[in-house]
Amino acid sequence: MNNRFRNAHVLFAACLIVIFFGLRGVAEDAITAITNAKIMTVGPAGTIEKGTILIQGGKIAAVGASVSVPAGAVIIDAAGRVVTPGLIDAHSHTAMEDGVNECTNIVTAEVRVRDALDPRDISIYRQLAGGVTAANVLHGSCNSIGGQNATIKMRWGAGSGDALIFQGAPPGIKFALGENPKRSSFGGGSPRRYPATRMGVEVSIRNAFLEARAYKKTWDEYEASAKIAASAPKKGGKASAPAPLKVAPRKDLQMEALKEILEGKRLVHAHAYRADEILMLIDVANEMGFKVATFQHVLEGYKVATEIARHGAGASMFSDWWGYKMEVYDAIPYNAAIMASHGVVVSLNSDSDELARRLYWEAAKTVRYGGVSEDEAFKMVTLNPAKQLRIDKWAGSIEAGKDADLAIFKSHPFAPDTRVEMTLVDGKVLFDRARDLAARTGVAATLGGGQ
Amino acid sequence: MKISRYLMLAASGALGASANPSFAADAPLVIAGARVVTVAGAVLENASIIIQNGRIASLGSGLTAPAGARIIDGRGKTVYPGLFDGLTYLGLAEVTQGAPGTVDMNETGDVNPHAKTWVALHPDSELLPVARAFGITTALSAPGSAMGGQSLIAGQSAVIRTVGDTPKALTVKAPVAMHMRYPTGAPVIDFSQGPPNIEPKTFEQRIQERTKNQEKELLRLKGLLEEARAYGEGMAAGTALKVDLPMEALALAATGEIPVVMRASAEADIKGAIKFAAENKLKLIVAGGAEAWRCTAELKKGDVAVLMSVDQLPTREGDPYDAAYANAATLHKAGVRFAIVTDDASNSRNLPFEAAMAYAFGLPGEAAIRSITLSPAEILGVATTLGSIEVGKTATLIITNGDILDHRTSITNVIIDGQETSLDNKHQRLYERYKARP
Questions:
Q1: Which chain A residues are Cβ-neighbours of B332 within 8 angstroms?
Q2: Per the count of CB atoms within 10 A, which of A98, A208, B86, B307 is most buried?
Q3: In the beta sheet, which residues pair with residue B344?
């Protein structure tokens, strides 16, 4: 499509949003109350058949069946509706312009998704319309060790990429195993580069961490010497350190990221499909002294659920995709059920700007495939991805003190007639279907046969 | 025995475990006391279906089971016509990326009217039992998939059943349609040859080139169709012709004997395809149809049906977020014929969920179910035997424990041509093998 034409559309859409949402900003201390709602808290309060949520300063101030609404509160009457925590997509490439894959090296731990975030990407608005309020925006799977992720909130209308960042979320990084880093499925035109086998993938990760351990040691020694130098008593203005202060090593951005992994400060999100490569990475992680936070896709995870659970890694997957390449030929829709029953924290993700808009139904599928309970199933798109991204202190359930990131559904999120009517991020209404419909003109107003 | 008496005995436990001894393969089959969504007419509560010789022999209440019949207790269950995925490459591909040896739906070259999918069906494809176990009994197996179908004329499709030991046994009807893509003039990029080398050009240059290319391609297609029509007329008149396989095949479409399924998604392409079909007297079916909601008047006027998938992003950034979800409801309201399809193979089992999304965004529930049963049967010319539960039709149906549009529903029985089929499939087997691995 013509870029100018496209941009005009985006601008138009952005203007509409500003008109309908931006100007409705309320004072920070104003209280919003969602009333008369069925509330699936996904927290200790369970499901409240008819209750109220109070929102103040972007946070949930109170939730319960008998919460009184203070005078002057802005009321959102959700009678007949179902309020849930905002959905969280633990594997996304949204709002990244075309910057998903820095494909040119085996290890690209130095590149950052946050440098490519585009707050005007219409996908943000479309995903709000599917109830999604946060996502783990990952680097692509081109390399054994890819770039650094960005955990974002869907703050449509934000003025910069940085304004999308989920404050407090620990940093992460993408690893990738199997066919994608091998570049084996991408046709004759793709230039071959190392690694071209699963053997090479293993070597490239071990090599990188051997280097990172040496780098860390150099820095640890330097920092120890600096500490001693700083604390040593001074005589005649001269330091009398027992060991001389070492020269500061040169910073290496790639090694810094790997050092953070070794220090447990950066979460590893490892794209993997086959059971053997999952076990391989667990072995390498154990040898090098780090943990895998989540296995991503992990479509053969059901074959080694016990080992994944023992390592303490989460699993984030498609509900039922299979057969699109050789390494997913054994993928089964019962994967989530088997992994959950082995004690793995499971989330269902999209990896797609389209699928992200119906994650609630992806969760519903696990009821069909393996008989997961509805409560556990819904956790797989709310609390569980929050746990995997270590943001469950702020998101994933409706509890007092957590961020007011909420979705309001027409009916139970698993029901066939359901859809998202309203989505709030930090207590602000960023999607409202009624307003969206009212803003449609021309041929768009005839969509759905006219409203 | 009266079926109502059987159900009473079954409810009281009087039938015991020996209620269903072994039956001959050709024994009559009775589904007793179920909710029957006939699609052709009203939903029947507490109704029974008697199946004999592969067909629906009778339907309703107060029926008597034929002697020797096997009875399936349908209480609390719902019966639907078998789900019909009206655009797939089922049977034609196993692993679409990285295993080209298993992929047979996209022939090389631009003009392949004589390529026939029913000669290349793989009966032991693992995709068939997976689709079947989740209710897909019938599918259009078509050449020229959305993912990589480059041919201007891709070949001919067949309606298949998802059970059978040979290609012939899988095939219900062939040929069904000639598959083409509406030429857009855009350069065809073959990503299997690596990243395309795109020359820097201005927007105006690109538009000009595209328009010129499109005119050329349309003229070429028109020429091929004229030639094929002449060839067909010659054949009909008994003229001795030099055998020309492409022309012989294309004549079927050029003379209107079979419809043409043309891929077109953008508004201009759909409208262009309708115009081209009218000028060339083709029976047109549009596949894709993402912007069909912008073309309802033209589709209605030309009586052109659409095979559409629902779970798609809007095609234009400024379009409503639910453009693809509400597409079906728009067509329904305008009286345009359509079927909801997956345009896929491994994901074919998600067909009812695509219909559910259309339902959630305004398509009435009955129309949603029709769009994955009777509507594709009508559009693809097999509705005299398939697509609904009516006396005399083929007994191809499914039994569920709930609403087929609900993701939580399970399919408990799949009956194709009056035979209950196995629900065993690769996914179930792996599940059984690994679910209790310590």
A1: 449
A2: B86
A3: B88
CA distance A141 to chain B (A): 16
Please name the member of A3, A188, A325 whose beta carbon is closest to the beta carbon of B194.
A188
CB-based contact (8 Å) between A367 and chain B?
yes
Put simply, the answer to whether A367 touches B407 (Cβ < 8 Å) is yes
B-chain CB neighbours of A350 within 8 Å are none
Residues pairing with A432 in the sheet: A422
pLDDT reported for residue A29: 73
Candidates A214, A208, A213; CA nearest to A195 is A208
Answer whether A323 sits within 8 Å of B346, measured CB to CB: yes
Tell me what pLDDT residue B61 has: 94
Distance CA B203, CA B188 (A): 18
Residue A35 contacts residue A69 (beta carbons within 8 Å) = yes
Q: Any residues with CB less than 8 A from the CB of B19 and at least 6 apart, and which?
A: B10, B71
**Across the 451 residues of chain A, what is the mean pLDDT of every consecutive 10-residue run?**
45 47 55 98 97 98 97 96 98 89 92 96 98 98 96 97 97 97 65 86 98 97 88 62 75 98 98 98 98 98 98 98 96 98 98 97 98 98 98 98 98 98 98 97 89 49
Q: Between B332, B434, B437, which is nearest A449 by CB?
A: B332
CA nearest A322 in B: which residue? B346
Q: Which of B383, B297, B298, B301 is nearest to B339 (CA)?
A: B383
Which among A156, A324, A326, A378 is the top mutation candidate for probing chain B, defined by the most B β-carbons within 10 Å of its own β-carbon?
A: A324
A193 touches B at CB < 8 Å: no
- Residue B97 has its nearest CB partner, among A185, A353, A361, at A185
Quick check: B430 and A332 CB within 8 A? yes
DSSP string computed for A146-193? EEE-EEEE--TT-SSSGGGB-TTPPPEEEEE-THHHHT-SS-TTSPP-
Q: State how far residue B361 is from chain A, nearest Cα, in angstroms.
A: 7
State whether residue A20 sits within 8 Å of chain B by CB: no
Sorted by sequence, the CB contacts under 8 Å of residue B146 that are 6+ apart come out as B263, B288, B343
* DSSP-assigned beta bridge partners for residue B156: B116, B178
**Alpha-carbon gap, residue B438 to B435, rounded angstroms:** 9
Where are the strands (E) in A12-126, listed by range? 31-40, 47-56, 59-64, 74-77, 82-85, 87-92
Question: Which pLDDT score, from 0 to 100, does residue A15 have?
Answer: 46
- All residue ranges of chain B with pLDDT < 50 are 19
Tell me if B278 sits within 8 A of B303, measured CB to CB. no
As a dihedral over the C-alpha atoms of residue A376, residue A379, residue A383, residue A389, rounded to 10 degrees, the angle is: 100
Q: What is the largest CA-CA distance in chain A?
A: 88
For residue B411, list its beta bridge partners. Answer: B400
Chain A nearest C-alpha distance from B428 (Å)? 8
Please provide the size of chain B in residues.
Answer: 438
CB contact under 8 A, B408 and A324: no
- How many pairs of residues across A and B have Cβ atoms under 8 Å apart? 171
Q: Which of residues 395-414 of A touch B (CB under 8 A)?
A: 410, 414
What distances in angstroms separate CA B379 from CA B87, B133, B219, B311, one per listed residue? 11, 25, 28, 21
The alpha carbon dihedral of A351, A356, A359, A362 has a sign of: negative
- Supply the DSSP symbol for A26: -
Measured distance CA(B93)–CA(B345) in Å, rounded: 8
C-alpha to C-alpha distances, A360 to A341, A374, A420, nearest whole angstrom:
20, 11, 10
The strand pair at B171-173 and B260-264 is best described as: unpaired
Q: Report the C-alpha gap between B144 and B167 in whole angstroms.
A: 19
Please give the single-letter amino acid code of residue A344.
V
* Interface contact flag, A449 B329, Cβ < 8 Å: yes
